[in-house]
């Protein structure tokens, strides 16, 4: 049994999700301790992480111990992966995207039949990939690797109520395609959506207007729109840079007492280092590329605008399973080059 220290590196939930997916894909039993030890004041398994464990166990007929709320230790013994229809209700505003990131690759590479996965919870919550990131950026990157994940959002969900509903159709593949994303990308255009759910439409207009002004100050041509979503109250601004191997997407989430201008300004500020670096891959997408590229049919290389601790930790966990060698050139907090060399399935 492979023993993994959940406090290593960034010490968050990504270690758990990657370990579960890798356990299924390599049929390696794992024991994880100190789960999310760096996430105070609530370490251990929270609702969305517990659902990641149970979702992985269900698709992979795994034997699990320690799968309870707040648990800091877990053992996971994988079985056969089966496709089919699954529904995973988080029952809080926990991120639906993170549950999907746990199960999609095992279903794509380990199952023989297509899968339909419905996940209920938060679709636009802080510190997690939003549904718009999944649809506009992540799914496009997966397509470049030869992996088809068709997405739908039936209903958005926000903190603290949740209640969102997304659906993913995962098609099995025999192998994934290696990629090279190293050419500089110059961004000339941006798309902005100011969205409100159960709030005054003027809030959405302010979100879109502020983001548009700030992006134009950076030299971009901007198309903006305002949308009204159900199941609020909530507000969000979604910024998309369409150029690159796949679009770059940033989502700013409103919160009680935080002005719309501040939400939009923070989202634009998140994009600035990526724009300046001209690297083709943003840091959030770099995290998500490592896992599938470890099972690709050849060596891959890409440039990322920010080498994050998330990226370094994810590379470390993946390499513990012996499927790939991952080299990252560049200091944490700066642009870098990532090379992934699979050792064969």
What general form does the structure show?
globular
Q: What is the CATH topology descriptor of the largest domain?
A: UDP-n-acetylglucosamine1-carboxyvinyl-transferase, Chain
Strand order of the largest sheet: 1-2-4-3
Average pLDDT rating: 97
Number of domains: 3
What gyration radius follows from the Cα positions, in whole Å?
A: 19 Å
Low-confidence stretches: none
How many distinct beta strands?
16
Q: How would you characterize the largest beta sheet? A: 4 strands, mixed
Q: What amount of the residues lies in strands?
A: 25-35%
CATH class of the largest domain: Alpha Beta
Q: What is the terminal-to-terminal distance? A: 19 Å
CATH architecture of the largest domain: Alpha-beta prism
Helix content: 25-40%
The assigned structural class equals: alpha/beta
Order of helices and strands: EHEHEEEHEHEEEEHEEEHHEHEE
Topology:
Blueprint: E1 2-5, H1 13-26, E2 30-33, H2 47-59, E3 63-65, E4 73-77, E5 85-89, H3 96-110, E6 115-121, H4 131-144, E7 149-155, E8 164-170, E9 180-181, E10 189-197, H5 201-217, E11 221-229, E12 234-241, E13 248-253, H6 260-277, H7 283-293, E14 300-304, H8 309-319, E15 324-329, E16 336-342
Parallel strand pairs: 1-2, 5-6, 9-14, 10-11
Antiparallel strand pairs: 2-4, 3-4, 6-8, 7-8, 10-12, 12-13, 14-16, 15-16
If you had to describe this structure to a student in words, what would you say it looks like?
It is built from 8 helices and 16 strands. The longest helix is centred in the last third of the chain and has 18 residues, at 260-277. The chain has a 4-stranded mixed β-sheet, covered by helices on one side. With 345 residues, the protein is α/β, with parallel strands linked by helices. The two termini are 19 Å apart. It has helices at residues 13-26, 47-59, 96-110, 131-144, 201-217, 260-277, 283-293, 309-319; strands at 2-5, 30-33, 63-65, 73-77, 85-89, 115-121, 149-155, 164-170, 180-181, 189-197, 221-229, 234-241, 248-253, 300-304, 324-329, 336-342. The model has no long low-confidence stretch (mean pLDDT 97). α1 (13-26) packs parallel to α8 (309-319). The radius of gyration is 19 Å and the shape is globular. The protein has 3 domains: 1-80, Translation Initiation Factor IF3 (2-Layer Sandwich), CATH 3.30.110; 82-174, UDP-n-acetylglucosamine1-carboxyvinyl-transferase, Chain (Alpha-beta prism), CATH 3.65.10; 189-277, RNA 3'-terminal phosphate cyclase, insert domain (Dihydrodipicolinate Reductase, domain 2, 2-Layer Sandwich).
């Amino acid at each position: 049994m492979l023993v993994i220290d959940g406090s290593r590196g960034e010490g968050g939930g990504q270690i758990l999700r990657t370990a579960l997916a890798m356990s299924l894909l390599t049929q390696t039993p794992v024991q994880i301790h100190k789960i999310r030890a760096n996430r105070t004041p609530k370490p251990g398994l929270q609702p969305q992480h517990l659902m990641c464990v149970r979702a992985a166990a269900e698709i992979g007929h795994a034997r699990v111990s320690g799968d309870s709320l707040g648990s800091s230790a877990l053992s996971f013994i994988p079985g056969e992966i089966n496709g089919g229809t699954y529904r995973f209700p988080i029952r809080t505003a926990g991120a639906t995207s993170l549950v999907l990131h746990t199960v999609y690759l095992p279903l794509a590479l380990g199952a023989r039949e297509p899968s339909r996965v419905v996940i209920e919870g938060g679709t636009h919550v802080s510190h997690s990939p939003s549904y718009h990131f999944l649809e506009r950026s992540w799914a496009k990157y997966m397509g470049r690797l030869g992996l088809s994940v068709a997405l739908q959002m039936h209903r958005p969900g926000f903190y603290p109520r949740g209640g969102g509903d997304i659906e993913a159709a995962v098609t099995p593949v025999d192998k994934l395609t290696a990629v090279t994303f190293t050419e500089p990308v110059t961004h000339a255009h941006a798309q902005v959506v100011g969205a409100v759910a159960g709030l005054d439409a003027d809030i959405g207009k302010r979100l879109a207007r502020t983001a548009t002004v700030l992006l134009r100050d950076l030299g971009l041509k901007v198309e903006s729109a305002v949308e009204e979503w159900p199941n609020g109250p909530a507000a969000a601004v979604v910024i998309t840079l369409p150029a690159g191997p796949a679009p770059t997407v940033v989502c700013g989430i409103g919160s009680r007492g935080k002005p719309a201008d501040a939400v939009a300004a923070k989202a634009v500020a998140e994009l600035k280092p990526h724009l300046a670096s001209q690297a083709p891959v943003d840091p959030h997408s770099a995290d998500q590329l490592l896992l599938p590229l470890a099972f690709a049919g050849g060596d891959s290389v890409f440039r990322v605008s920010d080498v994050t601790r998330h990226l370094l930790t994810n590379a470390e966990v993946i390499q513990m399973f012996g499927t790939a060698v991952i080299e990252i050139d560049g200091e944490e907090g700066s642009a870098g080059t990532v090379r992934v060399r699979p050792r064969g399935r």
